[in-house]
């Protein structure tokens, strides 16, 4: 056994470094559902910067040092406070913000978001297709693509509520098909994992499983 460790010490060191890098520095996250469409369709795999906000002990939620502040508009991976599942959503409200939705319109600190260039499209579901309306949502200095699904039963009005100190409010860009803070509650900072910043690889998992080459390396907006 000692001889095996001696002969393979370089490989063992590499694997230990790689494991630490993935657990504490950077990671990748597959997109299994349509909750972030049209920004992130199912089949995307995104790169996640685990040091964007905090340095944590690997395999724990213990924060060793705060490295940066979450910003409105960030796409963030986090652990659900409801059931412990890893999720990826859009950060829309910071501690102290008052957030509200009125019939699909997002309000932040009493100011309604603007919805630019709306267009009707057909969107895939697990059991078929549905009609959707996509637009550019502009609020609090950030703009992103969102969509609503008029035919689906969803929570289209919410709040107003003030985000408590040390917690954050998240929404999926696919507003009517997302288990976000409207359902799971606010997310404490120690449950934030990292910020998603680029698409690593992508494949059409709802269709022919072919690679979507045009999405490789795409910046997440």
Summarize this, please?
This protein is 12% helix and 43% strand. With 221 residues, it is mostly beta strands.
SSE sequence, one letter per element: HHEEEEEEEEEEEEEEHEE
Alpha-carbon Rg, integer: 19 Å
Mean pLDDT: 88
Fraction in helix:
10-25%
Structural class: mainly beta
Strand content: 35-45%
Question: For the terminal residues, how far apart are their CA atoms?
Answer: 50 Å
Biggest sheet: strand arrangement: 1-2-16-5-6-14-15
Return residue spans where pLDDT drops below 50 for at least 5 consecutive residues.
Answer: 4-24
Number of helices: 3
What is the overall shape? globular
Total DSSP E strands: 16
Describe the structure.
With 221 residues, the chain is mainly beta. Strands 1-2-16-5-6-14-15 form a seven-stranded antiparallel β-sheet. It has a four-stranded antiparallel β-sheet with strand order 9-8-7-13, with no helix packed on it. Strands 10-11-12 form a three-stranded antiparallel β-sheet, with no helix packed on it. The protein is globular. About 10% of the residues have low confidence.
Fold blueprint:
Layout: H1 2-7, H2 9-25, E1 26-30, E2 44-49, E3 54-56, E4 63-66, E5 75-79, E6 86-93, E7 98-102, E8 105-108, E9 111-112, E10 114-125, E11 128-139, E12 142-148, E13 158-162, E14 167-171, H3 181-184, E15 187-188, E16 192-202
